[in-house]
Design a protein that fits this description.
Shape: elongated
Mean pLDDT: 90
Helix content: 25-40%
Largest sheet: 6 strands, mixed
Order of helices and strands: EHEHEHEEEEEEHEEEEEEHEHEHHH
Low-confidence stretches: 364-368
Structural class: alpha/beta
Radius of gyration: 27 Å
Strand order of the largest sheet: 4-3-2-1-13-14
Number of strands: 17
Length: 368
Amino acid sequence: MTTLIHTADWQIGRQYGGFEPEDAAALADARFAAVERIARLAADEQADAVLVAGDVFDAQGVSARTIRRLFNAMEPFAGPWVLIPGNHDAALAEGVWRHALRLGVVPANVKLALEAGVVELPEARAAVLCAPLTQRHTYTDLTEPFDGWTTPEGWLRLGLAHGAVQGLLAEDIDSANPIAPERAERARLDYLALGDWHGAKRIAERCWYAGTPEQDRFKDNGAGQVLRVRIAGPGAVPEVEALPLGRHRWRTLERRLAVPSDVDALVAELAACGADEVLQLTLAGTLDLAGRARLDEAIAAAEARVRALRCERGGLRLAPTAEDLAALHADGYLGEVLAELREADGPVEQEALALLAGLLAGREEAAA
């Protein structure tokens, strides 16, 4: 029984510009930690090889320190790794892979397939047919030569590629780097390991996407896993199991608030969020002053507890009741301003209303 670990789309060096700097740095570091967990998993499983199907790096211009950190993270598994470039880290004449080679940090057990061809793994009695990307976008199927490539008799034929299986994925990614859906059968492959799609996905019994090992977007598509592939021998149907590996859980919460019980439910939901969650909170509806204060406090507490929280309040309107305004004791000019802001629907006016009401409420509490 041959055991393989199939992974892809590490996106090392990714920048998280939509987050606060502290959170962005932690999310970037989590990708190195994911690689280290993959290496330890491969060692624990006594894997015969780890296949990495492209987009190891997120960009060509990553630093030397980032490159060194990656290969340090791979150290726990001393067996063979086979890596191919993807669209983010294509094998350019002067790109990230040439940089890594010049640094001299690529270990002997790491096989970089920077050109199309066959990587032989004699100890595993396996041949890996590799279709690396040498430019960001191609419009021909780079796996087509697999059909005619020969491999040693009695060895496993494994494919390794990065691109979009035509007709089976979202239409907007079917234009570049195409892969024929029946490639595994045409090329007599025992298994075709793919990258590019960021979630674990079965294409056919011998063809899978591994997805990114660390979730990186607000989409529940099976990200945060690696695939353990076991093959009894040439021609045998592979046994594929998705193994959870990612640390962070990205979730979107869309909530419409209208009555106090809606706020109660959201406050409880936020209180239950864990330290490794990345949240996108989208709010709509109307709140009185008390509800707004409770919500602000719950969001502030959640921001301090979870890994990252982004909140969109554009659809949320502050609607103080007459009792709210009376309790603020805002007479004269302030009362007129509050009344005008209360009637306005713009986001600036709504924020101003919340700030002014909060200041006045604080004044009342201090006076009490």
